[in-house]
From TrEMBL:
Catalytic site: D164
Catalytic activity: (R)-mevalonate + ATP = (R)-5-phosphomevalonate + ADP + H(+)
Subunit structure: Homodimer.
Domain GHMP kinase N-terminal, chain residue ranges per copy: 84-172
UniProt protein name: Mevalonate kinase
Protein keywords: ATP-binding, Cytoplasm, Isoprene biosynthesis, Kinase, Lipid biosynthesis, Lipid metabolism, Magnesium, Nucleotide-binding, Transferase
Lineage of the organism: Archaea, Methanobacteriati, Methanobacteriota, Stenosarchaea group, Halobacteria
Domain Galactokinase N-terminal intervals: 3-39
PROSITE patterns: GHMP_KINASES_ATP
Keyword Nucleotide-binding tagged: yes
Amino acid sequence: MTVVSAPGKVYLFGEHAVVYGEPAVPCAIERRATVTVEPRDDSHVRVEAQDLTLDGFAVEYADSPDDRPDVDVPKPLLDAATGYVDAAVEQAREAADAPDAGFDISVDSEIPLGAGLGSSAAVVVAGIDAATRALGEPLDRRELADRAYRAEYDVQDGQASRADTFCSTMGGAVRVEGDDCTRLDTPELPFVVGFDGGAGDTGQLVAGVRSLRDRYEFAADTVEAIGDIVREGESLLADADPDSDPSAELIGELGELMDINHGLLSALGVSSRSLDTMVWAAREAGADGAKLTGAGGGGCIVALDATDETETSLQYTTDCEQAFRAELATEGVRLEE
Ligand code: MEV
């Protein structure tokens, strides 16, 4: 039995624009997906998803996804438990040169699905790592990140950047611009997450931005402006001492950029009423800045606030189902057992 976990993430800046080659800065957070893999004697794949819903469920199928039985669960859940796991299995089989390898796989995630916290990337990263280790062919982190990106790219019909999967593999704060992925040395930022209990469809949201960008030059300019925000934010982070608490001035400046970033994402049509409500609740509670995180459409916002005010206020906001402080996960993918 091989057990591997990988963290989720929030975007400090740059989601969506990163798909078009602009830079982005996602940060791994201490909420993990854990994948347990046991090789089988046949080529079947059995996926069991625990804690993703109250009940969880299990499906078993031979190597063609067409063999999957019908399961009465919401699509994001089914995709997480089968689509992304299938893609991870394919990558592991290819990497280990074991096309007929079968596995019993169990997914146990603390990251809400489709909510902008990188649940699918964490499942894919942990899944490929666990399966290749179980086959005796562990991958180095760069290859793991690359294969995890290819798995997400396949599931999302060619609409994925390397940001989520690289961040989940490496941990910490990272910078992604096209194929260029690096880790950043940043101070610990006071992230607060608000979750509306919902989810967005990443593929559809990315397609919506693409359509606006294709039709309107000003939408393409908006995507470029998000890139400018990221460059501005990066230079603030580069001047900060990674080993000290961030200054109030730094948090204020980063927060201002987050607010502008949210406005531009909203202009591109990827916010929602509940995300906007949570963003405003955070700002009114005194957060230095707040924005949606991830693909949008529903799910999570991230705010910067060193006090408890934002978390408390979000907990009393009707549109917010859950609020929590998110610590930076300095460790990325990790072998648990
Ligand atoms: C989704 O978490 C982030 C997006 O930028 C898509 C991607 O980068 O693959 C919307």
